[in-house]
């Protein structure tokens, strides 16, 4: 295993501590619950937004806490759902008079932890709603998930509800907005290499030198098929061929296009993919109204990328354009 | 080779085209000279700032073009200096009445191309100055460089002169500021894996499963020594042990601390390293006044990281804090 790590069992706490030390004025780390929260949260003028899942997907979600984004992130260990008690305590620490919204990618372990925590929080009198994101078109139902999985498209749901919450929207309104964004968002990814969880110390699966995994999940779960590695052009054709007809996105649509890196792929390759996807969409009459290139939801050190489309309307565009501030996005 | 690529010989142009397509309102791509420039440049109210080197170090420099940063970036092919003619034409396209500043990492090939281009531009009546960055403490003199190499610390020189240029500083003033920032900036890096240039198709060097390269250059050049991979704690001790005494940075100093990823290392590991470095500096009485964690100057897909310190004073802090806008840093 070639990683910067001390005791692999301390990987997540040491990372969280680093995030807090790098952002002493804006973020707070609560080690008891693996929690990263805004230093100025909760505010009773806005709904608190909390997102959680296993670690290993950074910057999601612990590095996107800040004004106009998350109020708190509650991660589990690498690729493991957070304990239900941690989610509950996080919700209590961030309880707002306007309510609490929990954002969860649709994976069975995460779903269970957050649903149970929400029930207990409600029993304690809190106003809590849970919103599940399921943007991955690759597979439906698996040993990991009932229904579709939530992957990089969670960024758009989070950004939209984060902006609306900052503007004072109610909990009901945020649920409406989040469900709407989720309903027009679709993603599929391709892995070129496996990833290595620090505590395991070896790759989660094997890929031959000439192979790729089409439709890979963000924990290295199998996708649609194992295939021979092809050119960037053919890979974008495959991804658009799965994503575009699924909603479907149609000629005349304006979309946000995200090329998300899975952790080990350099940004040069992501921009190369972006250019190809942008032009192929234009050839179908689909216009890119907003572009996102970089790492948003990763799988540790996996080389690979995912492509996400969001169908834009005026409401979604305005929410995506709203200002936001997050950890260390400094020039 | 596991990369997203079409014809490897088109890797750089296809990446540059992607950058331009993702930023249609703010950036312009001039294929004849591999040039990415601000769409609103040149302005005769400010000195134009151009940075160049081989490609493969993204986001440096083609992805940091924008207000308060670079006016243009002129990259060569992967790990190859840009042709002298391209640098000259870039300088001409960005010629401003206030002059042109060329920023160059100190590598022999880049130095030759930019010095010759500057001479020719001056012969054509342009006011051009060239500033060399040499922040890498690892090695002095090699087959690649006379003197020290320029690596991730180039970001701080660029950010400072970019901010000062936006505020209307003269070319002489920018040279003074750039030399000052360079003089208080020191870096050293560690590679855990080699990197693979697309056109070569195989790794530039070999590292055994339990080895790291201490003091690696940003093109995979050898550093101080090949060593057995150790814990993150010991790696930070090694990097601080080389960087801190070099200037030296001393108890009572306030510094900017950058943990820069070399391309294949996930940001989770970079924050883990950041936390360790921050605390070890504090134990020496050195305060981190500003933190930078992420990818600033990479080596393609190399797993590894570098640590940079900048001794802060009021002038440098103000320039680092000044607003800046670059490609796709959107939330």
UniProtKB/TrEMBL annotation, chains A, B:
<dbReference type="GO" id="GO:0004371">
    <property type="term" value="F:glycerone kinase activity"/>
</dbReference>
<dbReference type="InterPro" id="IPR004006">
    <property type="entry name" value="DhaK_dom"/>
</dbReference>
<keyword id="KW-0808">Transferase</keyword>
<dbReference type="GO" id="GO:0005829">
    <property type="term" value="C:cytosol"/>
</dbReference>
<keyword id="KW-0418">Kinase</keyword>
<dbReference type="Pfam" id="PF02733">
    <property type="entry name" value="Dak1"/>
</dbReference>
<feature type="domain" description="DhaK">
    <location>
        <begin position="7"/>
        <end position="330"/>
    </location>
</feature>
<protein>
    <submittedName>
        <fullName>Dihydroxyacetone kinase subunit DhaK</fullName>
    </submittedName>
</protein>
<dbReference type="InterPro" id="IPR050861">
    <property type="entry name" value="Dihydroxyacetone_Kinase"/>
</dbReference>
<dbReference type="InterPro" id="IPR012736">
    <property type="entry name" value="DhaK_1"/>
</dbReference>
<dbReference type="GO" id="GO:0019563">
    <property type="term" value="P:glycerol catabolic process"/>
</dbReference>
